[in-house]
Amino acid sequence: MLSGVRAGLVSADVLQREQQELRRLERSNKRLEEESRHTETVYRDKFGRRRDLAQERLEEKQKAEAQAKRDEQYARWGKGLAQGRQQQQNVEDAIKEMQKPLARYIDDQELDRMLREQEREGDPMAELIKKRKAKENKEKEKPRYNGPAPPPNRFNIWPGHRWDGVDRSNGFEQQRFARIANRKAVQELAYKWSVEDM
User: Rounded to whole angstroms, how far apart are CA atoms 89 and 104?
Assistant: First the structure.
């Protein structure tokens, strides 16, 4: 039978022996039950090695923190570093302006500086200041090509200041311009031919 005892007509001694055997098995199982009740579950990987779950959780947490840090950095880069700095500057300027009193008097230095920096139409000194700034900028400008007019190109880019004036192209630009001019001429001729009867 499933319980481990014999089926059918059984004598009392056989029944007693079976009962004792069952009790003995139960006692040995009880001891194993007690021992295993307070033990921790052993988790193993697919190769049969023990897994340290606490260590794995710690590693996952560190990976998640590193990923969050990386995502935050990419989000900051995606918006643009210069734009972020500009936004921060705008916030600081707005806070600074909010802390100023509402009424501004004539002796306010910041107001005076701001008004002086504004350019007004018809200001005779503004032209002199522009000339000075242009002169300073001209000294900083890169040199430009000063020779004879270069052949046109499709991007209208002026040659570099060291260009010697020799056209070393393979003729693609000239062919392109010729095709464009030819196409335009054919379209114009076709239009004139189509409206000739009118």
Answer: 23
Q: Which of 158, 131, 156, 153 is nearest to 142 (CA)?
A: 158
Would the pLDDT of 187 be above 70?
A: yes
Strand partners, 136: none
- Which pLDDT band holds residue 155 (cuts at 50, 70, 90)? confident
Q: Within 10 Å of residue 173's Cβ, how many Cβ atoms?
A: 15
Among the listed residues 133, 165, 125, the one whose alpha carbon sits nearest the alpha carbon of residue 149: 165
Query: Which amino acid is located at 180 in the chain?
Result: I
Tokens at residue 157, please?
A: 């880019």
Beta-carbon count within 10 A of 183 CB: 10
Cα dihedral sign, 161-166-168-174: positive
